[in-house]
Amino acid sequence: MNSIILELSALENKIIDNTKIYGLEIHKKISEMLEVEDKNDLRVSNIFGEFFKKRIELEKNEKYKIRITTKTQEKLLKLRDQLFQLAINEENIVIGEGIFQLAGIITKNDTWCGEYDLRKEVKNLDINKFNFLKKINLKIVTPILVDGKSIFGFEKILEIILKEVESKLEEAEIKVLKEKILNFITVKREFYREKKVNLLNNNIKKVYIGDIEIELYGYYGEFFLVLLQYLRYAGIGEFKEYGFGEIILKS
Asked: What is the per-residue pLDDT across 159-177, written as a single tens digit (0 to 9) for each?
């Protein structure tokens, strides 16, 4: 997985209806540029700071940021080449009702940028490493959806996480893996905030975001941390391609 941030300058004042989720329009545009056929090969954010708003009010000459994540570095390099060409030619980037020009590409940001190879990281783990100990704060930035409903509660979220990575792991027995992980972590605190929203054409009216403080130890504690690091890029749950299921980690 590979992530960058695009900085876009709005060319006109515009009010955009965000109840349909502007991330869908962003995903559609970038998919066209990259000729992506499988939506799962590309993940985008909404405009930073605008996810929960009913309307996005673009102001002329103001700069806005979006995060782009591709499964392969090849796709990311192709996108960068196309964007640089657009910038050289001063061509517009039309995303739904928004009209922009590229103002910059950010590749260095500890929270939102970088690359991650899950299989490589899992392979590099030392099963005999017993002294691993780390405390983290798992922050749910945008709602995790399952069957159109916002999910909260660590054990439920853990099940979703394991299903997300099941096809990429050699240990395919999710139930057994869940028990092993739970034996090597301690949930210190869970805090969730309920938000009244109007998302996906009013189909989602209530969501939960929040923080989970966890202590990880031993091989399976470090193994779980590797999964979380991967999901910082891949996202969790339904509609993750469009900016749902966004998590960040803080020590």
From this structure: 999 988 888 776 556 778 8
Claim to verify: residue 172 and residue 87 sit in the same structural domain: no
- Asked if residues 122 and 225 have their Cβ atoms less than 8 Å apart, the reply is no
Share of the chain above pLDDT 90, in %: 71
Residue 163 and residue 183 share a domain: yes
Residues in a beta bridge with 248: 139
Supply the Cα-derived Rg of the chain in whole angstroms.
19
List, in sequence order, every residue forming a beta bridge with 132; answer none if it has no partner. none
Distances (CA, A) of 191 to 3, 144, 173, 213: 28, 15, 29, 9
pTM, two decimal places: 0.92
- In this structure, the answer to whether residues 120 and 167 fall within a common structural domain is yes
DSSP secondary structure letters along 151-193: --SHHHHHHHHHHHHGGG-S---HHHHHHHHHTTEEEEEEEEE
Indicate whether 243 and 121 sit together in one domain: yes
Do 82 and 31 fall into the same domain?
yes
Examine the fold and report which residue of 89, 114, 139 is the final residue of a domain before the chain moves on.
114
Q: SS3 for 120?
A: helix
Question: What is the tens place of the pLDDT at every residue in 137-164?
Answer: 999 999 999 999 999 999 999 999 998 8
Taking a C-beta distance cutoff of 8 angstroms, is the pair 10, 58 a contact?
yes
**Model pLDDT for residues 9-32, shown as the tens digit of each residue:** 999 999 999 998 999 999 999 999
Q: Does one domain contain both 128 and 110?
A: no
**Domain limits at 199?**
116-250
